[in-house]
Amino acid sequence: MSVTPDYTFASDNTAGLAPEALAALTAANAGQAPSYGDDPWTARAKRLIAEFFATECEVFFVFNGTAANALALAQFCRSHHSILCHAVSHLDTDECGAPEFFTGGSKIITLGGPGGKLRAADLAPVFGRGHGIHYPKPGALSVTQATELGTIYTPDEVRALAAVAKAHGMAVHLDGARLANAAAALAARGVTPADFTWRAGVDVVCLGGTKGGMNTTEAVVFFNREHAREFEYRVKQAGQLASKMRFAAAQWCGMLESGAWLRHAAHANAMAQKLAAALRAAGAKLIGEPEVNSVFVELPPATVAALEARGWHFYKFIGEHGYRLMCSWATAPATIDRFVADLRAAPR
Fold it and tell me: How far is residue 18's CA from residue 251's CA, in Å, rounded to a whole number?
């Protein structure tokens, strides 16, 4: 008997476009508009992003997060520099050497830290490695918000990391593929996006649209205009300049003007909480408490095999039996109920 594959919990990339993004795309499709970003949608999207961060900033749209991260870091780092990041960061594990390629050879140096987070104390040993010009000069620190393990940096934690980086002449980059989820969670504590980015010492943010319900649109945001000098040439040279940029920008307009971007992120976070509670009630062992839209759980091989036989797709992520279940803007409570029912019926 064939089963219908269900990719709901495999990734937040598996969901379709949020209705606000799709509607904005449709609206932008009428008539003609100037190319390469000289259109009113792009201007409006840039203004909305500046309002989101409560500061003037330079905004550039690219097609995907790998390009956003790699190009942003290349703006600060040359081939003799190093880039510090967490050992489980997307920058090191999932970008096929793109940061090294676009920087011309900057060395990625990975560091440990509980919960996928770096701590200021974790950075100190790096500055004692090597001797003089025989070791790459630290050029940038990359922080992921929210992290690959679903944890969140507080403004104080970002500020402490940035202080160490700046003391050593380094730029601070924030990989924000799931920044909306972090922002939605932190908003409940009275924290704004400005508080954990530029006010905390971040120089450049890669703002994720795709995981938040948009298609082929990410934003690179510089908080200092001088840091963005000639970045448009870097975008063009990398093949990341959209000729019909209005379609990339319009989605940001639709999502930010309506508040849908954070609203959908809050929904994804809430679904992760619901899923975690249901898993716990079913006797599953969670690996940490979810802070955003990911749930990590230990599942024995027999249980995984049974769930996969029912069509569920999800990925091993931590250790031998640790799996990640992602929720998205489109995750429905009924889907969680169905998954947990199959889990209860599975052998242990």
Answer: 9
Alpha-carbon span 98 to 68, nearest angstrom: 10
Task: Name the maximum alpha-carbon separation found in the chain.
Answer: 65
Q: State the Cα–Cα distance between residues 285 and 297, nearest whole angstrom.
A: 6
Structure tokens that stand for 217 in this block: 């649109």
- CATH architecture of the region 261-345: Alpha-Beta Complex (3.90)
19-258: what CATH class? alpha beta
> What pLDDT score was predicted for residue 1?
58
Q: How far apart are alpha carbons 335 and 56 in whole angstroms?
A: 41
Q: CA nearest 145: which of 116, 110, 168?
A: 116
For residue 265, give both structure tokens: 């992120």
Q: What is the mean pLDDT of residues 303-321?
A: 95
Concatenated DSSP letters for 63-119? S-HHHHHHHHHHTT--TTEEEEEETT-HHHHSSTTHHHHHHTSPEEEEE--GGG---
Across 56-79, b (16+ Cβ under 10 Å) vs e yields ebbbbbbbbbbbbbbbbbbbbbee
So where are the chain's domains? Answer: 19-258, 261-345
Q: What is the pLDDT of residues 125-150, one digit of tens each?
A: 899 887 889 999 999 999 999 999 99
Residue 240 sits at the vertex; the CA angle it makes with 211 and 235, to the nearest 5 degrees, is: 115
- Using a 10 angstrom Cβ sphere, with 0-12 exposed, 13-18 middle and 19 or more buried, the burial of residue 121 is exposed
C-alpha span between 210 and 208 (Å, rounded): 6
